[in-house]
Each structure stands twice: as structure tokens, then as C-alpha cells.
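Quick one, probably user error.
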């Protein structure tokens, strides 16, 4: 029996001693508590960083909104121009104008917000980008006429440019896949071009309308930008 105990004692002496934290169960519990506390500190630091980013974003949004409001007064959008009633599509990138001609024709104009036109000519740093507004002008003559006359146009800051003139069904019926839409406006004779421009001008679609649309869209760009930033700010704050 003694021969078995002595080798066992020698083997136990050669074992690596336990670290102090594991010799006492109370120390083991304390060690776990300290480790848990360290993880909580890391989580708190991450939350503080997120909160700082959050507040910084809100601060920038508030600054941008105040700048846009302060740099020039925001005017209420016009509700009329000449013979047209103006329908501002808040939150959308287009507006609609409705008018009548001699109580016999309905005139509808749908205008997009600005398009930036790229040119091949080099542009100086101080030059403003060339911008236009896309227009669809519709002339309809009521239920007795099955078609609508459409003009595809561009409104420049001081002039109106026509691209296409064509008819389409006014009842919403399907248009052929490849309908003949007539020649490009610039390919028409000068006499026909002038006559069609006079036709539009007599119905209020003119260079003056193009100028009005640019002024209107300048205000709409700012109003929509402020509205967008306000919505983003409200979302971030939730």
C-alpha cells in the first residue's frame, strides 16, 4: 500500500498549481463578474458612439434646413398663371396646369422638374448648368372628338421648344406598338412650324409660360428639398 501512495504523492507534486483565481470558488465568481462588467463597458461605449453619430446627423439636418429657409424667403407657389390653374404636386417631381380655350377646348400641361442638359462645349466654373423642363401639352375637344393633340416640348428659361406633335386616342385605348408619330418638329417646313407655334401661343403655351415654369420650379426645388430633409430628420428622431 505504501508503495502505491508514494508514487501518487510524487505525481501530485509535479502537477501545475491552480491560479489564485481558481483556488477559491468565491474568486471564480468575482472573476466572472469583472469580465461581465468589462463587456458592459464596451457596450456602453458603442452606444455612446452611436448616439454621437445620431446627434451629429440631426445637427447637420437642422443646420441645412435653417440655411435653406434663411437664405431667401420661401414664397407660396402660384395657383394661377394667365388662363391656367396651377396644380402643384407636393412631394412629386412634376406639376400640372389646366386651362380652357374659347370654352371649346381643354388645355392640359404637365411639366417635370429641371433636367440638366450636358453640352460638348467646355463650361467655365462660374457658368450655370443649362437646364430645361420637359412638357407634355394636350389639347382636347370633349367627348365628341376621339383624339387628343399632344405636343412634346422643352421649356428653356426664356423660350419654348417643340419636339413632336401627334394625336393619341382620348379614351385610353391602346396605342399601336410602333405608331407613326409624324416628323420631328425641326424637320417640318418653317411655315408649318410657325403655324403650330402660333396655335400653341393662342392657347397660352408660349415663351412666357416657359419663363413662369422656371421661376415656379426654382421655388419647388427648395420646398421639396426642405420637405425631404424634414422627413429624414423626423425619421432619425424616432
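Nope, works fine. Designed sequence:
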Amino acid at each position: 500500500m505504501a508503495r502505491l501512495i508514494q508514487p501518487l504523492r510524487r505525481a501530485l507534486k509535479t502537477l501545475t498549481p491552480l491560479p489564485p483565481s481558481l483556488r477559491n470558488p468565491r474568486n471564480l465568481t468575482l472573476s466572472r463578474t469583472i469580465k461581465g462588467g468589462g463587456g458592459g463597458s464596451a457596450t456602453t461605449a458603442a452606444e455612446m458612439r452611436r448616439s454621437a453619430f445620431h446627434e451629429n446627423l440631426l445637427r447637420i439636418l437642422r443646420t441645412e434646413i435653417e440655411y435653406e429657409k434663411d437664405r431667401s424667403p420661401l414664397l407660396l407657389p402660384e395657383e394661377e398663371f394667365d388662363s391656367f390653374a396651377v396644380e402643384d404636386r407636393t412631394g412629386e417631381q412634376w406639376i400640372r396646369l389646366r386651362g380652357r380655350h374659347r370654352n371649346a377646348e381643354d388645355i392640359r400641361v404637365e411639366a417635370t422638374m429641371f433636367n440638366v442638359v450636358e453640352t460638348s462645349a467646355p463650361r467655365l466654373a462660374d457658368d450655370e448648368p443649362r437646364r430645361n423642363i420637359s412638357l407634355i401639352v394636350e389639347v382636347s375637344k370633349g367627348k365628341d372628338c376621339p383624339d387628343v393633340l399632344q405636343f412634346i416640348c422643352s421649356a428653356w428659361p426664356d423660350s419654348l421648344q417643340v419636339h413632336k406633335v401627334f394625336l393619341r386616342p382620348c379614351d385610353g385605348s391602346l396605342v399601336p406598338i410602333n405608331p407613326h408619330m409624324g416628323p420631328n418638329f425641326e424637320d417640318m417646313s418653317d411655315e408649318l412650324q410657325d403655324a403650330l407655334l402660333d396655335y400653341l401661343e393662342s392657347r397660352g403655351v408660349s415663351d412666357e409660360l416657359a419663363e413662369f415654369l422656371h421661376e415656379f420650379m426654382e421655388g419647388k426645388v427648395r420646398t421639396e428639398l426642405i420637405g425631404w430633409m424634414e422627413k429624414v430628420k423626423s425619421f432619425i428622431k424616432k
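The two ends are 77 Å apart (CA to CA).
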